[in-house]
Specification:
Blueprint: E1 7-11, H1 16-27, E2 31-36, H2 39-51, E3 55-60, H3 66-80, E4 85-88, H4 110-120, H5 122-138, E5 141-146, H6 159-179, E6 184-191, H7 200-203, H8 206-212, H9 223-234, E7 245-248
Parallel strand pairs: 1-2, 1-4, 2-3, 4-5, 5-6, 6-7
Helix pairs in contact: 1-2, 1-9, 3-5, 4-6
The structure holds nicotinamide-adenine-dinucleotide.
Length: about 260
């Protein structure tokens, strides 16, 4: 019970890493607010948690919409009187299903650039902007951002995605500097290739998939392996850790 009685908001908790984190946080005693754009997926996560006798609550959220984010945070604060943990996980990225083009600068329409940054970077800013005042009043909080390996190394293509994740990495450091005095810890996970719907179509193609099965551990990661890192950073076990940019990538960035 590493998160006993904690209240945690997890964005994008209807799928992949966010869902794995929601299930794990709830198992560890947290009440989890599933802040997810996809209603069906978000409600399914909540059902799995409550069916197991644990606590969760769905709030349909588009993290790129300021009014929506403001209402989410107000509702959670009114209901639970505190917010201990914010996992800024939701994002859009590599997927054949994505309506946004993942390409280099020359092939990226401005509209797609703005949409990708609007979710992956502005969404993190907006969620933080509305949760921080509550954590400042509590004089305690843990915020975890989910960036990407693309935020720390240059991978060809997906330039808007890469820029958005680089922005999240930089934002982690400056937020840690700004809010440490309020006992708020801000850390960032940089996943490598993780087996979630975001990249499932890529992994389904054996020719492309083998490009992802490189690095010291020679395999892609599972969403639970990100959830474990998020759980540690969220918990009081990480009480002296802030401003950390943590690759969880099977060693991909080390070689
Ligand atoms: N899967 C990977 O290989 C990988 C690698 C590095 C980083 N990441 C990052 O990890 C995070 C989680 O991705 P995942 O792999 O679990 O993908 P996923 O597609 O399985 O899950 C993402 C979830 O976010 C939700 N979402 C998207 N836009 C939203 C919005 N505007 N508001 C609220 N919710 C929204 C989606 O509905 C979905 O449920 C993302 O930020 C992604 O960029 C993924």
């Amino acid at each position: 019970m590493r998160l006993q009685d904690k209240v945690a908001i997890i964005t994008g908790a209807g799928s992949g890493q966010g869902k794995a984190s929601a299930l794990m946080f709830a198992q560890q005693g947290a009440t989890v607010i599933v802040a997810e754009m996809n209603e069906q997926a978000g409600k399914e996560t909540v059902k799995q948690i409550t069916d197991a006798g644990q606590h969760a609550f769905f709030y349909q959220t588009d993290i790129s919409d300021e009014e929506n984010v403001r209402q989410l945070v107000e509702t959670v604060h009114e209901k639970y009187k505190k917010i201990d943990i914010l996992f800024n996980n939701a994002g859009i990225g590599f997927s054949a299903r994505s309506k946004y083009k993942m390409a280099s600068v020359l092939e990226t329409p401005l509209e797609d650039w703005n949409s990708i940054l609007g979710i992956n970077l502005n969404g993190v800013y907006l969620m933080s902007k509305y949760v921080l005042p509550i954590m400042i009043k509590q004089n305690k909080g843990s915020i975890i951002h989910n960036a990407s390996l693309n935020g720390i190394i240059g991978v060809s293509g997906a330039d808007a995605y890469t820029a958005s994740k680089g922005g999240v990495v930089a934002l982690t450091r400056v937020m840690a500097a700004d809010y440490g005095k309020h006992n708020i810890r801000i850390n960032c996970i940089c996943p490598g290739a993780i087996n979630t719907p975001m990249i499932s179509e890529v992994l389904d193609d054996p020719e492309i998939a083998k490009n992802y099965e490189t690095g010291p551990l020679g395999r892609v990661g599972e969403p639970e392996e990100i959830a474990s890192a998020a759980l540690f950073l969220a918990s009081d076990e990480a009480s002296y850790i802030t401003g950390l940019i943590m690759p969880v990538d099977g060693g991909w960035s080390a070689v």
